[in-house]
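Exercise 4. Each item below gives a protein and its sequence. For each, produce the structure-token representation.

Item: Adenylosuccinate lyase (Sphaerotilus montanus).
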Amino acid sequence: MPHSQFTPLTALSPLDGRYAAKVSALRPLLSEFGLMHRRVQVEIEWFIALSDAGFSEFPALSEAARGLLRSLVIHFKEEDAQAIKDIEKTTNHDVKAVEYWIKRRIAGHAELERMGEFVHFACTSEDINNTSHALMLKSARDEVMLPMLDKVIAKMTAQAQQFAAVPMLSRTHGQTASPTTVGKEIANVVARLKNARARIADVKLLAKMNGAVGNYNAHLSAYPEHDWEGFSRNVIEGALGLTFNPYTIQIEPHDYMAELFDAFTRVDTILIDWSRDVWGYISLGFFKQKTKEGEVGSSTMPHKVNPIDFENAEGNFGLASALLTHLAQKLPVSRWQRDLTDSTVLRNMGVALGYALLGYDSLLRGLDKLELNAAALANDLDDAWEVLAEPIQTVMRRYSLPEPYEQLKKFTRGQPMTAELMRGFVTDLALPQHEKDRLLAMTPGSYTGMAAALARRIGG
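Answer:
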């Protein structure tokens, strides 16, 4: 079927096909519809602000007129977006189509129609677009991405506290190392995520409305005495809730976008790291995965319960990071006062953040299935008595016994260790009896330092 109708099964992107339901929250915000919606909002707020500027040619609008205009934004529907798209077939210009659509919607309203030429007054299309993109990102960040990331952080915080005191053998360079706790290892990731989340939330979303090359040329040609910079700032910050950028070329330089996308990439990288670690812990048997009736792990091996959620998370975070990195590297680069390469790239913001959202969803599904296998953790620790060489040689150092490190290296390195061997070594040391007793009571599972306390503290 070479010309099949578009359906989730024929979608080119899996975000609009297989995974459509999981990223649906982003669709009205970062789609073509979302861009048109924000363009209408920006045009309307600019128009209303012009009516309040004190120009004799454009008296202040009545409350009824303002209500009608803002209702176009509040009640913007897919049919409205399609109507704009139909106008674009003639204009071959997407922003001009929005201007014409607004003029058609106010036709017949005497007060508004009379002022119709103040729609899009002194604006270049990029004044509308850059502000719309900032509004789109604001909604996506605040209403979808951060709340979903907060769910991940909340889930992992709860697990960090739940497993705070469950001892676990560490592996540095893949080799047995000083024990930790399961909760502390999760808390480490939570701490990183909280810092990364703060960086996302702290990015100021910038916008400009200063004309074709950023100098208010057209504005001043019409009203040379007016404070256009102050006017523009008031619209951007007061009416739209963004941050005003006073220095731009035709386009807002997109540095804030690069900062934002880099911040999302940092979260993706942290969660790739964690997804791989959990995958490994499942492989070692430290975690089991809850089974679901009817699910199949392998088409040929009936016993398998594969860690697919963590694998899917890793893959989707990788896709998100690749796209976000390209956006961050490309968008701040524009030839002279502008070129159009940013336009087509910006249409992929939803794709990039969509894969990140899909990664969060996959990771949460995986975390919800985890069950701790305490027996496997205990057995792993009991096979690693050599890790107590560290505390023993450290206490020996305290009491200035000769060559403590070298003695323990010779005794333990490359040799299987048991509780009896380690305790026999301690018994023969010239240490105060209370120190011997303390070391003799120590096990790999009790040698976890502050791990439990640090894990419990992460939720504070």
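Check: The two ends are 58 Å apart (CA to CA).
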